Amino acid sequence: MLLHDKEIMGLKDKEITNLRLNRIGFIFQTFNLIPVLNIRENVEFPLLLLKKFNKSEINQKVDKVIEAVGLTDYIQHRPSELSGGQRQRVAIARALITEPDIILADEPTANLDSVTSEQILNLMKELNEKEKTTFIFSTHDPDVLKYANRIVKIKDGTLVE
Amino acid sequence: MNLTTKIAWRNIWRHKHKSIIIGVILFLGTFLMTLGNAVVAGMEKGLEENLKGTFTGDLLVIPSKEDSDAVFADISGSARELIPNYFEVEKAVRTHKDIEKTMGMAFGLNYILNEDSDIVPVGIIGVNIKDFLEFYEKDRRVIVEGKMLQENERGVLIGNLGRKNIIRMGDFWIKPKNAPFNKDFLTEEAKTYGDNLTVKDELVIMGTGKNNSSFDIKVPVIGIYKLKSLDKLMGDDFIMDIDSFREANGMITGNDKSVELSKEDKKNLDDGFDFDEGFIEENQQNSDIDNSESILKVESNYENKIVADSGAYNIIVVKTNKNVNQEELIKDLNKEFKEKKLEVRAVTWSASLGFMGKIALFIKIALNIFVLFIFFVAIIVIMNTLSMTAMERVTEIGMMRAVGAQKKFLRIMFVKETGYLAFFFGGIGIGAGILLVMLLQVVKIETSNEFLQLAYGGDYLNPIITFTDLVIGVIELCFVTIVSLIYPLKLVSKIKPLDAISRD
C-alpha cells in the first residue's frame, strides 16, 4: 500500500504511528474523546504528541479549528457535558488540528440524529472545499452518499465497485 | 502540566473507587511494614542493650573446646570448659586498643539439693563481685530484699524470677540470711502453702565439675535482685562469689596448685617426694587445666581466706570501646589468639545467647514474610485492577494510538497513574507508621508479660524508625508497583488503533 509514493505496509510500529500522527486524521463512530480532558485539551492532544509547536502556536491552532467547528463556547467543557453532535465536532476538530492529508471517518454519523448528521456532513463538505482536506468515510447510510465525490463499495471486505 | 501527568492524575480521580482500593492496599502494606519494622528494630535494640548490659557484654571469649558459641543458651548438665591460660588470654584481650574492659566469669548448670523435694536445676554465674559490679551498669540489677554481695564475701544473689521458680519446683521459699521474713514478697503460689511454707536462707548447691570433681557446698543467700529490664524473662540466674562457684564445680587450674599450698605443705611435699623448688616454680608458671583431685582437694569451709584469683573461668565478657566494628574486632582477636596459640575464640554477644540472641532477627524475618504476603496480595489486586482498567479503556487507548500516541506514551501514562497512587498512599502509609511510632515512643506502653517483654525488647514498647528500614520500605513499595504494572503494561502495549473501531 502506497501513501505519498511510500510503501507503508512494512513499516515498524513506531514509524507507522508517526505516519498516522503527521498525515492521517481519524473520526470514530462513537467519537472516542478522552473523557478526562476538556474540549481544548482533546483537540490539542495530537499537537502535543507532535511536539513541533510551542504553547502559543498550539493555542492559536486550537482556537482556529474549534471556531471552524463552531464550539468556541464549549472550549472548557468535558465531553460528557456535550451532545453527540457536539462531540463529533470535537472529533473532527481533533482530526483537523494536525492538518493531515486525509481524514478517515468510521461511520461518523451513525450515532447521530438526522439533523445533526446533516450538520456534520455539511461541515465536512465545507472543510473539504475550504481546507482541501480529503475525508474518507465508511457508511451504511444512503443519505450520506450524496455528500461524497467518489463512492467505493465494499462487500465482505472485498472491493466490488 | 505534562500531558501524561495530566491524563494520569485525572484518571485517578475519575476511577476513584479503583484508586481507593489500590491505595488502601498500598497504605496497609507500607503502614504495617513501617510500624512492624520499627517495633522489631526497637525490640532488636532493646534486647541488644539489655542483654549486653546485663549478661553478655559486647562480645565474649570462650574456650575453643566449647562446641557451641551459645554458651549462655546451651546449658547441659555437664561442666563447661575452662579458659586455658586465662591470664595470658585476658591480658591479650584487655590490652587490645578497641577494648575498654573485661571480666572473667564462670557459668554453668548447678543443682540445689533439697531434703524435702527433688533437686532444682539453676543457672549460676560465678564472679568476683567487685569486678562484676564494675563491669555492668550499676542499676541493671536492683536488690529488692537483703543486700548486695560484698567483695570477699561468700554467698549467692538470687534473681527474683529464680526465687519464683524455686517455689514452683522445689516447694520452698528463699529469703536472704539475716533478713526478716517478709510475707509481702511471697508470690501467690507461695501463699498457698500457708503455715507449711518452708523458708530457707542457705542453699546446698551441687556443682557439675568434670571427673567427679564437684562438691556440695552450703552458701548463704545474701540478697534477692531484680533486673532493670527483662526480669520476667531473664531474671532467674543465681550470682555466686567465684570461689564458692569454683569449689562447687571443682574448677581448678595449674595456678591453684601453687596458690593453695602453704609453706608447711610445700615442705612436707619436698621432704616426702623430694621435689625441688624448681618444680614448684615451674608449676606456678603452668596454667594448664588440671582438674585432678589427687593434686588438690578443696574443702567446703566458708571461713577459708579467699586467695588470689586462680584464673579458673569459663568465659571472658568484654566491653568494647564505642563505635567499634564488632565483626572486625572479633576477627582481629581470633587472629591474635591463633598467632599466640591461645586455645580460645571470640564470639558475638548474640551467638552466645543462641536463639534468644537471634530472636529479633527471626521475628524480623517473620514480619517481612507477612509484609511480603500483603504485598503479594497487593500485586495481584493491583495487577487485576489495572488490567481491568486497561481493558475498559481499550477504545480510548486505541484512539490515542490511532491519532499518533506511541506505546511508550501509553506506558508512561499507566506507570504514572500507578506511581502516583503508590507514592501518595504508600507515602501516607509510611507517614502514618512514623507518626504512630512517635506516639508510642511518647506513650511508653509498659508490660510485665514475658512474651511482650521479649517482643518489646524490654519492659517498654520502644519502636524506632531506622533510615535503612525506611529505604527498604520505599524499595519494597517500588518493587510492588513495578511488578504489578508488568502485565497491565503488556496489555496496553498490545492495544491497536483498530481496537478503537472494532469496539464500537
Can you put this structure into words, describing what you see?
The complex is a heterodimer of chains A (161) and B (504). With 161 residues, chain A is of the alpha/beta class. Chain A has one domain (16-159): P-loop containing nucleotide triphosphate hydrolases (Rossmann fold, 3-Layer(aba) Sandwich), CATH 3.40.50. Chain A has helices spanning 13-23, 39-50, 55-68, 84-96, 114-131, 142-145, and strands at residues 2-3, 6-7, 24-27, 102-106, 134-138, 154-155, 158-159. In chain A, a hairpin with a 2-residue loop joins strand 6 (154-155) and strand 7 (158-159). In chain A, helix 2 (39-50) packs across helix 3 (55-68) and helix 3 (55-68) crosses helix 4. Chain A is globular and about 45 Å long. Chain A starts with a strand and ends with a strand. In chain A, 37% of the residues are buried. By secondary structure, chain B is an alpha+beta fold. Chain B has two domains: 3-50 and 357-502, no CATH class; 59-253 and 288-323, no CATH class. In chain B, the strands form two sheets. A six-stranded mixed β-barrel of chain B has the order 2-3-10-5-9-8, surrounded by four helices. Chain B starts with a helix and ends with a helix. Mean pLDDT of chain B is 83; it is low at 257-261 and 272-307. Classes of the chains: A alpha/beta (161), B alpha+beta (504). The A-B interface holds A 13-14, 17-18, 20-22, 25-26, 28-30, 32-37, 41, 45-46, 48-50, 94-95, 98, 106-107 and B 3, 6-7, 10-11, 13-14, 395-396, 398-407, 409, 497, 500-501, 504.
